[in-house]
Amino acid sequence: MSTILVGYTPDEFGKAAVRHAAAEARLRGYGLLVVNGSKGDAYVDKRYAAPEVLEHVGDDLDGISYEVRQVVASDVADELLRVAGEEGVRLIVLGMRHRTPVGKLLMGSVAQRVILGAVCPVLTVKPDTEPV
Amino acid sequence: MDSLNLLWGGLEAAVTPENLLWAALGVLLGTFVGVLPGIGPAMAVALLLPVTYGLDATQAFIMFAGIYYGGMYGGSTTSILLNTPGESSSVMTAIEGNKMAKAGRAAQALATAAIGSFIAGTIGTMGVVFFAPALADIAVEIGAPSYLAITVMALVLVTAVLGSSKLRGFIALFIGLTIGLVGLDLNTGQPRLSFGTTQLADRLDIVVVAVGIFALGEALWVAAHLRRTPLQITPVGQPFMGKEDWRRSWKPWLRGTALGFPFGAIPAGGAETPTFLSYLAEKKLTKHPEEFGKGAIEGVAGPEAANNASAAGTFVPLLAMGLPVTATATIMLAALQSYGIQPGPQLMTEQPDLVWTLLASLLIGNTMLLVLNLPLAPLWAKLLRVPRPYLYAGILFFASLGAYTVNLDSFDLFLLLVFGLLGLAMRRFGLPVLPLILGVILGPIMESKLREALALSGGDSSGLVNEPLAVIVYVLTALFLVVPIAVRYLLPSRFDRSDDAADDPSDERELVDR
Q1: Domain containing B482: what range?
Q2: Do the chains contact at B230 and A50, CB–CB below 8 Å?
Q3: Which family does the similarity line name (chain A) (predicted)?
Q4: What's the predicted TM-score (pTM) here?
Q5: CATH architecture for residues A3-125
Q6: Which value does ipTM take for this structure?
Q7: Least CB-packed of B74, B86, B117, B477 within 10 Å?
Q8: Are B14 and B364 in contact (CB under 8 A)?
């Protein structure tokens, strides 16, 4: 079965990404691969989901086959692309956070790197938006 | 009451805007390094040594004292919120503290830790005010043979009784003593272990050794283990305590203080033993035994008080006899020496201004900790989100800068690297750092006392045991060494705890950073 990859973070951006990805999956009959990643270079990373949070990722995914994966890698964007290539996913869905140019310089942008590096279509979504 | 008058004088000297600023800076820095696992007050003081050369001794020590107490406090925050003890002394706090946090009572756990630390630190400092002068009066009379014996006891106890492996402890101690030997023999002027280089003919600068072992060693270790799964932190708001929490906390605070202070004050101090005993005591005495293991406030209040009281207690041997027993106190002793102040029993009479201002600033720093940390707790928790590469880049920068500024000689940077690799190797093989750094500092002092004692007796080795005190101390040392082994041999089943820890280097590393 074809798969959609979702870049997930335990916040509104991750939720929006899962919501939009679920709509796509239902429409096309695809499965979901939810990936949550961290660079793992700080003691605490609020974008690394707690096990309790991950358990509830699938709450609104009735009827869709999905898998949740957590990764620790030096470069989360590269890791997402690697997983996408390995699984041959058809679509990548990402929550898009607004960054100022300076913020982008300092923090980098995972979404931008994935968009530029992906070989499949990438759907970027904002919180508070509904699937078409 | 003489001591109180002197302390009042010290308070008057300490309460100047400038000194208060140094105290505040020290307290903030101390909490900063205490919160971050792996970076402790010993490293912070070592990194700051070269920076403080421009200050006068009193101000530098006000800051160091703030770092020392702040480090204690910061360690407990990490223990409670993250279940990773920032410092060896807060291992026990993590047990109940993290359970409380998971049960949604992080605010109360942080509050009882902060207030308990404040109370224990204040009572402990008052204890130093009363005991240190009395001990110093006696210690002045002590001759070279007895002083040597007491130093040997301190080294043996720290090496063999603390920490989980005697062999590793002694390896570290002898490496330290060897490092202490490098340089010109003070009596004969012969170079020792200098390998023909002129730079090594001078004594090794303690800044280079300490910064290499603590800062560079830790940075290399972290670099080798950079990526790990992030831990889940408990979100926290403003710490506070309800009436019930107060009622259940005040007795453990006082009991913890009573347990912690004596353990800090004897020359085998350290906070591990008293915090462990305090935890056991609270578990036995509590009216809510069902809560232990699920987040009992007594299990946080007692050990936290014990660790701060013992931190205060370590100032007794440090000020009265020039004997440090924790890594941080050891670096502080080295700082004293770098100011040209001879630590020892005469310190209290020769440098009364320094000593009393320092003690007064301990009280001030302690109060500042309470005032600053209760509102700042959520901010300290955020610190754990800083990526380690940024953190350690800063540390490496200060480490190199510090090592270079000591003599403005690039050879010291080479030495820094050598000691950094040694520090990495010690962490890799689970060697404790405390015996090494104690050996480096106390080795030369011990040697001069040994020489003095032998010179008095005309080279006859009986000169080492011709004072009753020396003989008593040696006997005590032997007992400390033999009794645990004998007890363990006779009652093997009761020592499961130390068996578990014996072969776990990472566990041991947690126990040496203070």
Answers
A1: 143-229+405-514
A2: no
A3: Belongs to the universal stress protein A family.
A4: 0.81
A5: 3-Layer(aba) Sandwich (3.40)
A6: 0.74
A7: B477
A8: yes
